[in-house]
Specification:
CATH superfamily: dinb family like domain
Mean pLDDT: 89
Number of helices: 5
Shape: elongated
Order of helices and strands: HHEHHEEH
Largest sheet: 3 strands, mixed
CATH topology: Four Helix Bundle (Hemerythrin (Met), subunit A)
Structural class: mainly alpha
Distance between the termini: 72 Å
């Protein structure tokens, strides 16, 4: 049985991640967000994966409204990562992606706050295992935390690189 305290904790975590995205908006334009680190994802790809996941979860929640229990999650590819070519990345606006995440997140929070605890117990199937709405939402939070940690690490790396380049440029030439 899911209690209100568990739900409040979940919704607060989901809301907190919204504020992290808002904070990112202040620094993101100062870093090369489209640059892919060796063997990794660019900042914008990470952001698109966050947006894609929450969009797919919204689709799952909408399907639950129509179908009810027994939904097959494999059909939704909820946690598939977004991979782009360099050309696709160049055509994206990071501020638009951040705004999309924020709008979707606001809608998701509002939707979840209106649901009774029993809603979060609705069961679905994922790879022949039973999972609840609560499980899926916690998985989203966990994935987002990983992505945001990666993004923060890249931002710090790029800022350190920029500082190092300034220090080198300011050294007197012998």
């Amino acid at each position: 049985m899911i209690n209100q305290q568990q739900l409040d904790h979940l919704i607060n975590d989901i809301e907190y991640l919204k504020y992290e995205i808002q904070s990112l908006n202040k620094v993101i334009s100062f870093v090369p967000y489209s640059r892919k680190p060796l063997g990794g994802e660019s900042i914008i790809e990470n952001l698109l994966s966050i947006n894609s996941t929450q969009s797919r979860i919204a689709t799952v929640l909408e399907a639950l409204k129509k179908q009810g229990e027994g939904l097959e999650l494999e059909d939704f590819l909820i946690f598939d990562r977004v991979e782009l070519t360099e050309e696709e990345v160049e055509n994206l606006s990071v501020s638009t992606v951040l705004k999309d995440i924020e709008v979707l997140r606001t809608d998701l929070i509002k939707f979840l706050r209106d649901k009774p605890p029993s809603y979060f117990e609705i069961e679905m199937t994922e790879e022949s295992k039973t999972v609840s709405v609560l499980d899926v939402l916690w998985a989203m939070v966990t994935e987002e935390r990983k992505s945001l940690k990666e993004i923060a690490q890249l931002v710090l790396t790029y800022q350190s690189d920029k500082q190092f380049q300034r220090e080198i440029a300011s050294r007197p030439k012998h």
